[in-house]
Amino acid sequence: MVSMTHCVQASVLWLVLGLNCPALTHAADPVKSLVIENCSVFDPESGMMLAGRTVLIRGDKIVSVTGHSEKLDVPAEATRIDGKGKFALPGLIDAHTHSVHVLDYARVTGDEVLPLYLAAGVTSIRSTGEEIVAATLVARWAMTHPASSPRVFTCSPLLDADPPIHRDIGRGITDPAQVPGILDELQRWNISTVKIYAGTGRPIGKAIIEEGHRRGLFITAHLGAYSAQHAVEDGIDCLEHIWSVYNYVIPSDVKREPGYRGRLDFSTTLCESLIADLVKKKTYVDPTLAVFRNMILLPDVPEIKDHPDHALVPKRLRDFWPVYLKRTGCPQGGALEDRRREFAKFQELTGKLYRAGVPLLAGTDSPEPQCPPGGSMHQELEMLVESGLPPAAALKAATMNNATALQQQEHLGSIAAGKLADILLLTANPLDDIRNTRKIEVVIRGGIVCQPAELLKLVPKE
Ligand SMILES: [Zn+2]
Known about the structure:
Blueprint lengths: L3 H13 L5 H4 L7 E11 L4 E11 L2 E6 L12 E4 L4 E4 L1 E6 L12 H10 L2 E6 L4 H13 L6 E3 L1 E6 L9 E3 L6 H9 L5 E4 L5 H13 L3 E4 L6 H6 L4 E3 L2 H4 L22 H13 L2 E3 L2 H9 L4 H4 L9 H13 L8 H21 L18 H12 L4 H15 L17 E4 L13 E6 L2 E3 L1 H5 L6
Parallel strand pairs: 1-4, 1-5, 6-7, 7-8, 9-10, 9-11, 11-12, 12-13, 13-14
Antiparallel strand pairs: 1-2, 2-3, 5-15, 15-16, 16-17
Bound molecules: zinc ion (ZN).
The site of zinc ion (ZN) has 4 residues, from loops.
């Protein structure tokens, strides 16, 4: 459980250890200028890498993005970064994370792993279901420690049937009439997302969507009792996990014998009509392939179990992952070959959604088992590309689409004048090979230049 006392203790510890306490030493200077000269800039809207651009930043905002022929007055005192041969991406956003849940079981607090995200170029995270007080404290910590933390956007607890499936982070609702009062209370916590959970049926789900939309809230769901067909018809904004589509395109007459989930046919009317509705309603889907591969279906495969990204995570969390896998009954889905085929089906469906024009988000479910904060975002991008998305589309999902789902498209998601200066500078082109998103030279978060190696030193080893 995160507490204010712990946060204070952590900053005292940093001072005692002689490390920089970001809140004291790295606050963005509101008048300082930074210029990245002659770099290539990724534009998520066109999917193009625009060569020969100069990005001027003042304080925490981008002032201008200019080409070779345009005149630019760079202030004499500006810090200059030579961008020749470098590739600037908008800061990555992880659309599905937990800033408290899972960490609390492992006796880790959110502030301890936040630098892992930033070191990996993830400059914002969307939290997707937590105990609200603890989540608010982690978000507040991130806000006051911009040189070591991504921006943290909070979510409601999981709005569920009563009793809720996850008793620690769920909120049971028994009557649609309770919804306005619950949203009144949650809005006081300044949440960005409202999440419907698996036990919620249609009457309460519909009430949450309608009442939430009246208040301008973004409503997402991990579906169970509420079908995808109904939720989409009722106007849900987003579906979390590829399950929230896949589980609703299984024909009722299918023989549920071992391995059937890896043999599903997506060319049925049932599947095509749901996809058509997702396109028509512009409903986002956040597949979270990382958690399905790394935790649910293939956690025992050696290259996943021993992935090098895990080495950066505090040992307390790493040690807890196998405990939690056992507790949650993972791997699920039978024999290894059946599980591999099921995961291939999840990727096939993700590719089909993309080709049909369903807007996709990029999220990981970090820090669920073997989904390390930060590193799993790069894994997710790789899996989206394997599923059939061009690298530019995977990057658009992780930047512009995720920013739009946070209702932050005016401030985040692209490198453009007036937006917040959240940028990662790469030494190789991610459009040539998506794995190049890992080749990070510096991460800029609100105009603050952060060195990944220095950020990693802030993460406890134990
Ligand atoms: Zn989750």
